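pinging the channel bc i need a second pair of eyes. not urgent but kinda urgent?? the chain im working w is below, pasted from the shared doc
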Amino acid sequence: MNFRLILALVFPLLTFSNAAIAQKLTSDIPYVENGHARHVLDIYTPEKPAGNSLPVVFWIHGGGWQVGDKSDVALKPKVLTDRGFVFVSTNYRLLPEVKMDALTGDVAKSLAWVHKNIAKYGGDPKRIFVGGHSAGAQLAALICTDDRYLKNEGVPFDVLKGCIPVDGDTYDIPKIIMTAEFRQTLYGGKMFTFGHRQKFGDDPEKHVDYSAVTHVKKGKGIPPFLILYFPGNPDTRAQAQRLESVLKASEIPTTVYGKSDSNHRRLNNDLGKPDDPATLKLYEFLDPLVSQ
């Protein structure tokens, strides 16, 4: 039995540590001066950067807007820093402590901090890709379609080079509320309680305004999209297709991929695994845009 195998069996955590030596982590950086405890982000950089102006992936965690943490990134920082990216993962305040507009504003403030400061970490402030999983997918899609959030923070919309929402079910919020409440009626109000009306508030105009599909228009400078989803979930499938149709109608380059052999959580956690088909789609999406 060789020495590496003995170490892997006796000290399994050491193996994971060795797998991550190619990246450097700077954690818990405040993006709001004297802000909330959740106004922090993590920056992962290549240990030995190949250049001084690397493209940036800005990641927004999921958790139903109520839970979750920036540490929930699985393999993404390792594989993307190995590929020549700077990877940023952000926290934001959560429901019910704040309402959805403040929560979304936090994400915009975090991205604005990245735009202003990422050059100090070897990143290119003019080449930012925004991605997120689940609730983070809704936030990513909204930030990349409703330019008001970044304009309020003084960030040019054209720094966004791509958007990667992963298995979101709220790109069209009125539609998912209608679907969920129809199921509640059908099943006596006891099953399929999604709670979207409670999360997004009672104002139907707000439901429209928090929907990425509302803000898609030709000529705004909306970046290309890669929409990943699990087709076994009828809601994320329908919402992915809905967002795809609106983007393509406005002539925004859009790639959609449904990974069947997966589930909501695994689709996100498997990104970065060798031979994972969704990962290959991610690389195909990122690579041509890196040189722009």
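so Residues 1 and 7 are 10 Å apart (CA to CA). and The longest strand covers residues 123-133. — does that match what u expected or am i reading it wrong
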